[in-house]
Amino acid sequence: MALELVLITGMSGSGKSVALRALEDAGYFCVDNLPPELLLEFVELEEKNARRRVALAMDVRSANALPQVPDQLQELVHRGVAVRPLFLDATTDTLVRRFSETRRRHPLSRPPTEATSDQQRDLVEAIELEREMLAELRQRAHVIDTSVLRSAQLQEYVKSLLSAPLASLTLVFQSFSYKRGIPVDADFVFDVRMLPNPHYEPELRDLSGLDAPVIAYLREHQEVEDMFADIAAFLDHWLEPLARNHRSYVTVAIGCTGGQHRSVYLVERLAEEFGKQWTALKRHREMGAGW
């Protein structure tokens, strides 16, 4: 059985330590902030120790060596290691808030003796610089947007992703509210706000797209059926080419006004439909959201 390596990278303040704890709870041998120069040697050692599941976290503190990581991962794949790269991201506003609340310094912030009088501007500049430095790693990994996730939600997401078979394409269907922003990890985004809204039906307002009365209401409207058919046809057309391009994960985000009724209903139906052929996971971002 090949060694499985989960590499967690991402923005400072995005929750990498939370994700690593989730993997440790799931039985992975975890190492935080491993210098990239030691990656290949570390994997060789773990193979000799007969470990089968290993998780590593790397961040921008190893900035000078990060550019070599993509080639190292490709080398490990050639050696037969099952590599799963995850990248944790969040909006700049969210990261600024988190650093402000914890009073931590960003790794790329200027030293106190050099800091500008505008500390928030200095923090934003550090975050944007970090985005540039991590852009290639982000492009090669599955991205998880932690902007509006609680720690427990993030841990659940990480565990569900890693339960999916590595060899096949995994679809992640996610409902969301436009009020709280488009998920930054979405590969495809579909806006369903033009569909009939159960929110305006008093008896349905406090229910969700998981509840039978809401499901019955939405199934009665041809526009909803047309939207489902159009999204399904689009995915039917493009998923095979994506799989041939060696994509491991594709995130499909469905958004409505509150992220409670229409988007939830369509995510459930799409996950059920495409789960017949692909590995399909589903998330409802606004149900129990918050960091």
Report what the structure shows.
There is one protein chain. Helix 1 (16-25) packs across helix 7. The longest helix is centred in the C-terminal third of the chain and has 23 residues, at 222-244. The chain is globular, with a radius of gyration of 21 Å. The chain contains 10 helices and 9 strands. A 5-stranded parallel beta sheet has the order 2-3-1-4-5, with helices on both faces. Strands 7-8-6-9 form a 4-stranded parallel beta sheet, sandwiched between helices. With 291 residues, the chain is of the alpha/beta class. The chain is 40% helix and 19% strand. It has helices at 16-25, 39-48, 69-78, 92-102, 119-133, 135-139, 151-162, 212-219, 222-244, 262-274; strands at residues 4-10, 29-32, 53-57, 82-89, 142-145, 170-177, 188-191, 249-256, 279-284. The model has no long low-confidence stretch (mean pLDDT 91).
- Uncertain stretches: none
Q: What overall form do the CA principal axes indicate?
A: globular
Major sheet details: 5 strands, parallel
Instruction: Walk across the major sheet and give the strand order.
Output: 2-3-1-4-5
Q: Structural class, from helix and strand content?
A: alpha/beta
Percent helix range? 40-55%
Fraction of residues in β-strands? 15-25%
Order of helices and strands: EHEHEHEHHHEHEEHHEHE
